[in-house]
Amino acid sequence: MLVPALIAIHVVAIVVWIGGVVFVTTVVFPVIMTMEDSMEKVIFFQGTERRFANIAKGSVVVAGVTGVTLLQLEHRWSVLFSWAGIGPTAMLIVWTMFVFLLLFESAIFKILFGGSAQHDSKAIFRKLSAAHWVVMLISLMVIALGVYTNHIWLTK
Ligand code: HEM
Q1: What's the domain range around 14?
Q2: Number of domains the chain is built from
Q3: What is the position in ligand 1's atom list of the atom closest to the CA of 95?
């Protein structure tokens, strides 16, 4: 009863978090690219990203706690970084990548927008958009891998 409930909470947290990444990547960035004024772009982006970052941080914590608890309850720590544990391993790597991005979000923005936004915001947002596409596609692949490998494991 507990494991299925934890997987359900885990997946809902992933849907909110990665669903948000898909929205930012496929809706927010294309809208920003249509804006002419650089400052308007930066203000709109930082406003949107900062609001979503708070939602993402909550989902990342829930996904991490439920994921680690599932590994513990399923006694599956030993499969991490092995072929048999490719699902949870890929999840852990993606989770760690997002934790890093969310923890250093403002430092990353300072590097990106420090004093150069007026000069070439188009280039900066093109890079940011490309980075979001990469992170989004990796996350969607890990979701598919997680479901596929878990159902192989469950049907053994
Ligand atoms: C600390 C990070 C994480 C850990 C330790 C973790 C661990 C787990 C574990 C143990 C399960 C149960 C099924 C299994 O044993 O394979 C599971 C299910 C799942 N996880 Fe994670 N996970 C983490 C983060 C993520 C992330 C970042 C994603 C997606 C980007 C993800 C997607 C999924 C999905 C879709 C399932 C459901 C599989 C199914 O039953 O259909 N997890 N996770």
Answers
A1: 2-155
A2: 1
A3: 27
